Amino acid sequence: MITIQNNDGDRRVLLLDSPFALDESPDFPEYLFDVVFIANESAEEAKTILNSINPVTSTKCCYKPLFVSSSLKGKMGNYGEIIDGYADDWNDMEVMTQIENIIAYNTQLGLNAQEDPILSSNQFFIRLTRFLISRRKTILEPKLDVSASTGYVIPVFDLFYRLGHYELSEYFVFMQSMTEKGLFRTSKFVNKVYLCPKCLHSHMLYIHSCPKCGQSSIKIEEVIHHFRCANVSPEHTYNFGGQLRCPKCHKILRHIGVDFDRPATVHTCNTCGNTFIEPKIKTICTSCHHQTSDADELIPQDFNIYEITSEGKQSIISPNIGFTIYTEFYDNYVEYNRFVNRIRLLAEQKFSGNIKGDLLVGKIWILNENEETMPIRPEGIELACLYFPSNKVSAANNITYVSSIIRNYTGDTEEGIINFQVMLSETIRATLPILNPGEKICTTYMKLQGNQSTIDDFIKEMDYVSSSPDDTVAYNPAMVGQKPELPRAHNV
Ligand SMILES: [Zn+2]
Ligand SMILES: [Zn+2]
Ligand SMILES: [Zn+2]
User: Fold this and answer.
1) Number of compact structural domains in the chain
2) Domain check: are 253 and 342 in the same one?
3) What is the pTM of this model?
């Protein structure tokens, strides 16, 4: 059952009691409801519903107040992090006050329910951080959790990690990058933890092993120093039929401290007989089973309590956060003026004969139903960066740009140009899920021709889209909510 009902405060409550593909459904558009109520008494079923209908990843419920049945209080585990309250009556005074507070604060922040599907882990992190800001939870504190990937986890992040929204490496890069940019600050160091170099999980077994043969069957024994002849060797070498007798001078040992002492302990390998002072510590990851022969190979990782700074709050809420994030995460993204300078330089190099081949600039843009270009979407830039990892990518004038040099000393660049076109076509197809009804995405490429005097014209032409693109794909409702297909291994 799913319905929309008004509460006494005139807020429209979306009420549902079973899993429902809300984001994909054409019924119940985002603007028809303000609050979500999940009326289901089973914690497991409520969790299943929350996997898609939640104020973080859902395109229709983003940042909206969300309540579940009062009987589930204390039973929701980390899901509690995304639940605003437990109630059965949406006209309860406390519930109504809470709803009004959240809506008022979101309005003050300028956070509107967002309709874009999440296409990448970075977008996910931004959405989650926005949600946390909307709930005034600006302290991100890792907690110990025996079942969690890295031992220390921020519960609300871990909830979505388990749902597959990001990789651990992406998480660490995000945290570090936000801190470097001053959007987060470390308010307290918690601990340094050593992680598996392969999967970044923390649950390692630490095993003492023989430095010579690497086996771990090792006995520990004391070393005996015989004063009379200065012999020093492990205790077992003094054992003759239950008596302590020196293996070197064959005298019987009598009183510790008088004729002998035990200055140290040593390890002896049961496999190869090697005797050593310090065993080597090898590790086995209980998650991916990766073994290291030395604990030094583990990755040290600091866990901190982070605080979202006031500058961070502003930037993260801002719709432009995407662009700053991409320049940070993708080495191949460059600001447009740098991109243009680079094209000019390459063009000069080509015409002076230093570059053999063709210089191409690919363009991607989105048109609405009135054939007007639409502002660039960060997700589109991100996909271009992913599809062209060894090319430079930029964006301006409502256009995403990709540059390419098709090098060929024999002068035949046809195949390279075709590959470039194919990759542009694949990129616009991958970008389909971010289109809105009535929109279409287009691509074309420019090839530098002529001589030195045509460089300025070429650069001027980059500002404009083409009226006859090489390839166009239109909005397709079946693609809404789909994850974009990521590039196959290709080189252009
Ligand atoms: Zn050994
Ligand atoms: Zn001796
Ligand atoms: Zn591992």
Assistant:
1) 3
2) no
3) 0.69
Ligand nearest, relative to CA of residue 215: 1
Residue 134, pLDDT > 60, answer yes
Which position has the higher pLDDT, 128 or 356?
Answer: 128
- Nearest ligand to the CA of 227 is 2
Angle between helices 321-329 and 168-180 (to 10 degrees): 110
**pLDDT (0 to 100) of residue 491:** 40
Q: What distances in angstroms separate CA 190 from CA 187, 216, 224, one per listed residue? A: 10, 32, 43
Q: Closest-lying ligand to the alpha carbon of 254?
A: 2
Whole-Å CA distances, 137 to 156, 188, 224, 308: 11, 16, 61, 9
What's the length of the chain? 492
146 occurs within a structural domain: no
Taking residues 252-274, report their average pLDDT. 93
Tell me, in angstroms, the distance from the centre of ligand 3 to residue 167's CA: 13
Query: Same domain for 353 and 460?
Result: yes
Q: Are residues 337 and 268 in the same domain?
A: no
Give residue 291 CA to ligand 3 midpoint distance, Å. 8
180-192: burial string, b at 16+ Cβ within 10 Å, e else: eeebbeeeeeeee
- Over the stretch 380-433, which tens digit does the pLDDT of each residue have? 888 898 899 889 999 888 999 999 988 877 768 888 999 999 999 999 999 998
Taking the chain, what is the end-to-end CA distance rounded to the nearest angstrom? 51
Separation CA 397–CA 373 (nearest Å): 9
Q: How far is the CA of 268 from the centre of ligand 2 (A)?
A: 21
pLDDT greater than 90 at residue 192: yes
Q: How far is CA 451 from CA 108, 350, 357, 454, in A?
A: 55, 9, 14, 6
Give the residue from 95, 117, 139 where a domain finishes: 117
Domain boundary (91, 117, 143) is at: 117
Q: Which domain holds residue 88?
A: 1-117
Q: What are 355-367's pLDDT values in tens digits? A: 888 999 999 999 9
Residue-wise pLDDT tens digits, 280-305: 999 999 999 999 999 999 999 999 99
State phi, psi for 78 to the nearest 5 degrees.
Answer: -65, -15
Whether 151 and 264 have beta carbons less than 8 Å apart is answered as no
Query: CA torsion, points 313, 316, 321, 322, in degrees to nearest 10?
Result: 170
Ligand 2 is an ion; its neighbours by CB within 5 Å are: 226, 229, 231, 246, 248-249
Res 492: pLDDT = 39
Q: Which ligand sits closest to the CA of 224?
A: 2
Express each pLDDT in 469-491 by its tens digit.
Answer: 999 999 988 877 677 777 765 44
pLDDT at 274: 92
Ligand index nearest the alpha carbon of residue 251:
2
CB 440 within 8 A of CB 373: no
CA of 267 relative to ligand 2 center, distance in Å = 22
Same domain, yes or no: 273 and 345: no
C-alpha of residue 263 to centroid of ligand 1, in Å: 23
* 275 Cα: distance to centroid of ligand 1 (angstroms): 8
